[in-house]
Amino acid sequence: MDIKYINPFIIAAQTVFKTMLGISAEMGKPALKNANRTSGDVTGIMGLVGDKKGTVAISLREAGARFVYKTLVGEECDSINQDVVDAIGEITNIISGQARKEFEKNDINLNAAIPMVIVGKEVEMNFITKIPIISLPFYFSLDNDNSKEKEVIYIDFSFE
Amino acid sequence: MNVLVVDDFATMRKIVKNVLKQIGIESVVEAENGKMALDVLKKESIDLIISDWIMPEMTGIDFLKACKSDETIKNIPFLMVTAEAQKGCIMEAIKSGVDNYIVKPFTPDKLQSAIEKAKAKIGK
């Protein structure tokens, strides 16, 4: 996959994590996914169509998803409920919007879609492209506590 | 300051409320769409409107037009919140009299600045 299709997702993810969640997430090693399955417990998926086509999925483990909800809304939650699902849908929407802005800089115009959120591990996803899925892990500390195990947000996408 | 937050998405209303709280604004009234917001405006004294764009029943732009054509509420600062994908619609909002707009993602500082600019535009 051309680097010009990868950078918009990296820039979008880091911008949104910093702006909306107040975290400086460190990007890990990109990997190719062999299966179209969710990487975490809660996954927001957005189709992108226009000059090019693709799919982006933002996937978090339960603790990370609850952290996103708490940071965005200002309320604690004990489990993955509808409010958490909606918050992950919103963060997916914002990241994909930011990525579209970056694509525009390369004269690639993409249309908006409505995000879908899947709850569950290893759930099969339908990507609209034939090429392999790239998975970018972004690591961050919960509540800025470096003594805790780092959480991860996966940005999985395929674009052609 | 009493702020009316209009968004069909309950979580987004909570997110905006949380950001408002971070800049010291705790008095917030919510509405799910433009139609419900107009009902709120008839009953309550509102100092600032923060509205989403795409909503059922009455969209943000139709709500904006309704506000700016009503002598009793047209001087309430109106701030539109948009997603990046709706950027092209901003010109339409400006033509319809929006006092300011803010594109997601935004920080508390960015929202505060957008509110101040909206208030300044209307002379408040």
DSSP summary, beta strand count of chain B:
5
Class of chain B, according to the CATH hierarchy? Alpha Beta
Shape verdict of chain B: globular
Backbone CA Rg of chain B: 13 Å
Helical content of chain B stands at 40-55%
Mean model confidence by pLDDT of chain A: 89
Spatial separation of the terminal alpha carbons of chain B: 12 Å
The percent range for helix content of chain A is 25-40%
CATH superfamily of chain B: Response regulator
Give the strand content of chain A: 25-35%
Instruction: Provide the residue-averaged pLDDT of chain B.
Output: 91
The H-and-E topology of chain A, N to C, reads as: HEEEEHHEEEE
Structural class of chain B: alpha/beta
Topology-level CATH name of chain B:
Rossmann fold
Describe the model.
- The complex is a heterodimer of chains A (160) and B (124).
- Chain A is an alpha+beta fold.
- Chain A has a single domain (3-159), classed as Chemotaxis protein chec, CATH 3.40.1550.10.
- Helix content of chain A is 34%, strand content 28%.
- Chain A is built from 3 helices and 8 strands; from the N terminus they run αββββααββββ.
- The radius of gyration of chain A is 15 Å and the shape is globular.
- Chain A starts with a helix and ends with a strand.
- Chain B is α/β, with parallel strands linked by helices.
- Chain B is built from 5 helices and 5 strands.
- Chain B has helices spanning 10-22, 34-43, 60-68, 90-95, 108-121; strands at residues 2-6, 27-31, 48-51, 78-82, 100-103.
- In chain B, strands 2-1-3-4-5 form a 5-stranded parallel beta sheet, with helices on both faces.
- The longest helix of chain B has 14 residues, at 108-121.
- The interface between A and B is medium-sized, with 21 and 18 residues.
